[in-house]
Amino acid sequence: MSSRGALVTALLALAALLIWLAFRGDDAPTPPPETTSGAAPPTTPGPTGSSHAVPDRPTADEPALRLSGRVEAEGKPVAGAVVSLLAEQGDDPSAVRTDAQGRFELTGLAPGHYAASATAAGYLPAVQRGLDLHADATLTLTLDVGGHPLRGTVSDVTGGSIEGALVRTTPLSGVASLRRLDGFGTLADEDGGYLLQVAPGRYRVEVSHPDYAAERRTVEVGPGAQSQDFALVPMGVIEGTVREEEGGAPVPGAWVTWQRERQMTIAPGQRISLMADGGTVRADDEGRFRLRGLAPGAISLRARGPLRASDRPAVVPLSMAEHVTGVEVLVVAAHDLRGRVVAQDDPTQGIAGAEVQAVRDDPMGASVRTDAEGRFVLTGVLEGPLTLTADADGWLPSIPGVSAVAGPDAPELTIALARAPAIRGRVEPPVLAEVAIELRPETMRMGMAAPGAMIIGGGAAKTQTDGAGRFELGPAVPGPATVVARVADGRAGETTVEVGPDGADEVVIRLEERSTVRGVVRTASGQPVAQANVSLRPRRAPGAPDLRLTVNGRDMGVDSGTTTEDGRFEIGGVAAGGFELRVVDRYGEPLPVLGGLELGPDGAGVLTVSAGHDRDGVELRVDAPDGAIRGVVRTADGEPVPDAWVRATLLPEALGPRPEPEEDGPSERREMRMIVASGGDDGDGGNGRPPVLTDDHGRFELTGLRDAAYELVAESEGGRQRVTEVARPGDDVTLELAELGTIEGNVTLDGQPLPRFTVRVDGPTSRSLQVRDAGGRFELGRLDPGAYRLSVTAPDGTGHAEVEVEAGRSVTRNVVLEHLLTVRGRIVDEAGAPIEGAMILIGAGKDGEVSIEHQGEVEPNLTDTEGRFELTCASGPRALLAMSPTSPSPLVVHFFVAEPGQDVDLGDLEERKPEGRMVQQRDVEVGE
């Protein structure tokens, strides 16, 4: 079955979309809810053993399935074996121990496709893929004697063992990205110890626990026993109660959804914040809930249930490893919407398992899946207009959605979906393979298609072949598509097909042997670099745009491998051709290549792979990550602070000098960088550099740093005291903690308080808050001392103010909004003909930089048949982007200045070819 995580015509419901571009060249004028990682629900022990991270269901309407069975060896039950279950489209495995009779039971499972495994001391793991769960099922897993011991301990970095941590091990031979479902795991015992029996080879070992940030590393297992110890960093916890705003009664069984405001440094001195999706948990019979494993940041909480919903978020600023209790999430009267999702060509056919979502200004909109007949009940929808969208396997998403009005007399709704074109065929020889529509710049298409929704076409749909090697891949966008098949052992094949309105049939992909690249990464002094990621990206033709797409942390356009403790790496399944080779450390920080290979113009290593020939002995010399920053954390009175958390984040390098144009390349737009970030919260704990604790004398040491600038953040007393400084390896710094401050005030428009708006501050801390208050009052707390720009946006106006926050004090700043301006114009091609359907975005723009934030609260603004557009914006330096529905590159980038009180007519804006360098990063959770 096709992955609904397809980027091809996949509807991505965006909580926030932020675009940041830097255009370098002469044409830039000087003016102008599903539970995810990060917060696991409480562990729910099964009746036949202890379990790990079995998630609560996000909606009461979905069936909760059960998988039970037995683990045996040589015909006898195996007691204490660990059975784990991983969904094909999920990242959070469940695990349980067998009882004395070898029996196990996993409950609360969503329908879908899974892989199961079993492990026990003295036995090789048993793995069974292709489990199709749509009803309760039973399974027997059989173990064989053998393997080599891989053992170790799991502890808290602050001290003490971690019982119940899941140690999951995945083979890395062949194409590592295809081995995820071949993994297996065990649970740490009461002393934090674990033991696995594995065959010799390379493995990725990941250790996780609901209360801690995960840690992973690549290991090489040979003959004899091997030990790997892990120390995990504790994360935050929030406990609270869902209550009625009127009367304060608890709301039993309410669903609590959370998001985290995620800080992102895009350049030195430039920091932005995004609302990243977190997860959903269900309150108990007394309305109580508990969120675990939270990364630091501002956590926004909303709740909903039948006829109840939050009309504004409860915002909880959370520091590192902080435990916050007594939080109240309030709900008011709301409505339930009922309806059915049906086939467009046969309205009598209901579509089961479709996801229905309410889209409006609430970034945590309600969602639900349809039942077997396609029916749904969307609970807890606030009164007023909204748009309903639907998405399902094998169907095109509803575009632009169905308009509805939530109210006491809302009629039953019908959402019709069209069948999605698919590519059907087989691989030769028949074998289990991953088949995907390959991301290619020349076939990728992108554009807004619904309120708060984006469609990206031309790449990344994927599926797996059946036992006969046959596949059905979709949805597929009509037009040319490159279809690639890959096997875990490294074989691969590809073909280009023309997808028609009904798809494509009898496509044959012939598999062939591909190459393996092996080598070692060392520092300039010859020391091995462990746990570094080495990536190969096909070299682009001169003048071609450089398109980069990252989905869920995975770069879709590269092959990669991770170094072991001796610095060695192996990348399988590599096609013939020329490649750029780059290295990042275990935390995702770049390690510039200094030698060992020819270097390209942008500093990447250059490597050529010949068809059918492995490339061995590649030796890379990189900038050594062996620096250290030392220091002490003190109070404002100079006293040392023990047990303070100190974090280091690599600061992005400033844009370098303008590159010379390529011989046959662009002459005007020399460089363009584009970052698009939205969607799921990675927790900043999976790959980010872990913090360290100060000792009894307030001293700390951060090691493994490259020669670059780092931002240091120290926190103490539950985040009520904090300091931020910039340092480089070799520095010995003093971090002086300061009490945090607060900004409060009132917002008015035309002399009247504004009851609904979004307030944002940018400065030492970046934060935003959606406000619903009849008096127009707002409050933003726990802000670092310093200068801030306060911005308020509303449907009818916008306003700004400059604020100085002092340590430990609250400052009042009222904001008077000015009405938005109207911007008009027309988009035309090079011949002057109008361009219909271009999406128009306006954001802040000055000196060649563009920043656009979209919260999904408005319908996309598209040009009409004459290429005309009209939309509103605030005064100040602005930039307009016209996005093509058939290309990821902007048609037009135009800078202008909007004067207060004066509408703007931009006239005809002519399409310009997207020349130069484009980097597009998209960090989203797709279809999972």
Structure characteristics:
928 residues, mainly beta, Immunoglobulin-like, 7 domains, nine-stranded mixed beta sheet, eight-stranded mixed beta sheet, 55% strand, globular, disordered N terminus, disordered C terminus
How would you portray this structure in words?
With 928 residues, this protein is mainly β. It folds into seven domains: 10-32 and 820-923, Carboxypeptidase-like, regulatory domain (Immunoglobulin-like, Sandwich); 51-232, Sandwich (Immunoglobulin-like); 236-333, Carboxypeptidase-like, regulatory domain (Immunoglobulin-like); 335-417, Immunoglobulin-like (Sandwich), CATH 2.60.40.1120; 422-510, Immunoglobulin-like (Sandwich); 521-622, Immunoglobulin-like, CATH 2.60.40; 741-806, Sandwich (Immunoglobulin-like), CATH 2.60.40.10. Helices cover 0% and strands 55% of the residues. Strands 66, 67, 68, 69, 70, 71, 72, 73 and 74 form a nine-stranded mixed beta sheet that branches. Strands 2, 59, 76, 77, 78, 80, 81 and 83 form an eight-stranded mixed beta sheet that branches. β48 and β49 form a beta hairpin. It is globular.
